[in-house]
Amino acid sequence: MTTDMIIVLALLVFVVTALLTHIVPYGVAGMICCVTLVLTGVFTIEESFASMASGNCIMVACMIVVASALGKLSFIKKLQARVNSMKGNRQMLVIVIIFAFTILLSQFMGSTACLSIMVLLVQTLDPDSDLNPGRVFFAVAVMNCLWVSRIPIGMGVAMTGIINSLYSGMVPAEDLLSVADFLKVGIIPSIIGTVYCLLFYKFLPKTVMNEAAAPAAAAGKDEQPISALQEGIIWLVFAAVTIGFMFQDQLGSDVSNIIPAAGVLVMILFKVLPVKQVTATLASDMIFMVIGMQTMSSALTATGVDGLIGQLVLKILGGNPSGFMVITVFCLVATVMTNFMNNMGTMAVLIPIAASTAMAGGFNVQNVVLVVAASAWMMAFVLPTGSSAAIMGFGMGNHNPLKTMRFSLPLIAILVVSLIICSNIFYPIV
After folding, report:
1. What residues have CB less than 8 Å from 397, skipping those under 6 apart?
2. Ramachandran area for residue 154 (φ above 0: left; ψ -120 to 50: alpha; else beta)
3. What letter would DSSP give residue 317?
């Protein structure tokens, strides 16, 4: 084992510990890795920070900004008024509309933004009915986990970039994901999970919504509406970004990846978004974490540590594990991990190892990577530590995790089985 391998392994242990314990912010952990690789001579400064100027990183950061602007559109308030007019004996129709709206918002914005909007809608429900606000809001949080960034529009495009950034330095280009892959691997489990939520949401306890939700609702009502011109700008930017990715092959990745950045500049010029909000998003912890993890992926490959880890995991799995066993183990490990740390952290830890293991065993890299990524997002609702959606679902809904497990644990079992089956339908393991 070389000195460079020892350094990279030590950094890997550090970053896994940091992600599990959050002893330092995730972005800080990523930057520590980048700086240490330069100081120890493993990478040059250009190699260590190359991902910071990559088209993929720029696209991901700007897509998050673009998605945040979609929450300003007036159709949200119109839909809220429409749902409120349909209460009473039409409860199933109301819950279907609420779930459909959650699925829609989950494609265009992060979980916190989505649920901040949905709490305004859910709070108006009758607390004494089956559509108790606390119960429905937790189901909405689960729906967000099932569908967040699932469709390759809006944040769905950014999700593909995030996943690729975690292992892009380890595999040939043909093993990276296209924008439709995250949809294909999770579409059947997401649909099955949605049907489960529609049929069994009453297994969730009725609760009184946390008082913290009330200020959020008031803030949403007091927010100044944007002008018709600004709404048009948001739709125009969204259309340009979508078309750019639809015709990525014809335009080239440089053009399609820079369109979100151009859209952000347009929205700043037309005062759709304040500059402070944009710069805060572009300098967010997640962006620096993505940069650091992409650099670590490159370091794992450059020093040969990825192959070493892959062989070690294969040894643990057995002398000649089946592909089915490999994806089952990674699915279960990701499911457990994502409920004790956030979904982004779970992906950052497991995806490079999953890719290394698949390559070492001659398995389909896309299958294993997608199973880890889908598990990290879809299953993160059993405990409040699982995701931002879980934090809000438990916190604003005033739920006890033990009391929600009657609903959540059977759903987890169904999702694990359906995800493994779905992954092998679209991406045979061997």
Report:
1. 133, 134, 135, 137, 138, 141, 207, 209, 210
2. left
3. H
Alpha-carbon distance values, 123 to 73, 131, 133, 349 (Å)? 20, 10, 6, 37
Cβ pair 427, 370 in contact under 8 A: yes
Q: Which helix (H) or strand (E) holds 260?
A: helix 253-269
The average pLDDT across 217-222 equals 44
More reliable by pLDDT, 69 or 219: 69
Q: Between helices 181-200 and 91-106, what is the axis angle to 10°?
A: 160
- Contact present, 374 and 380 (Cβ < 8 Å): no
Which residues have a Cβ under 8 Å from the Cβ of 16 and sit 6 or more positions away? Answer: 349
First to last CA, the chain: 30
What is the phi-psi region of residue 129: left when phi exceeds 0, alpha when psi lies from -120 to 50, beta otherwise? Answer: beta
Four-point Cα dihedral 240, 242, 243, 245, nearest 10: 120
Exposure of 269 by Cβ count < 10 A (0-12 exposed, 13-18 middle, 19+ buried)?
exposed
| Region of residue 398 (phi > 0: left; psi between -120 and 50: alpha; otherwise: beta) | left
Q: How far apart are CA 267 and CA 66, in angstroms?
A: 9
Q: And the tokens for 173? A: 């280009």
Contact (Cβ atoms closer than 8 angstroms) between residue 356 and residue 310: yes
Count the neighbouring beta carbons within 10 Å of the beta carbon of residue 311: 14
How many helical (H) and strand (E) elements, i.e. helices and strands, does the chain have? 22, 0
User: Rounded to an integer, what distance in angstroms lies between the CA atom of residue 394 and that of residue 397?
Assistant: 5
Distance CA 349, CA 310 (A): 13
Q: What is the pTM of this model?
A: 0.69
User: How is residue 269 written in tokens?
Assistant: 């010029």
CA distances, 418 to each of 188, 333, 387, 405, 423 (Å): 7, 16, 21, 19, 9
Count other C-beta atoms under 10 Å from residue 17's C-beta: 14
Q: DSSP characters for 318-341?
A: -SS--HHHHHHHHHHHHHHHHTTS
Torsion angle of C-alpha atoms 66, 374, 26, 18, degrees rounded to 10: 180
HSE on the CB side for 49, CA within 13 Å? 8
Q: What is the pLDDT of residues 72-110, one digit of tens each?
A: 777 766 765 666 666 555 778 889 989 998 998 888 776
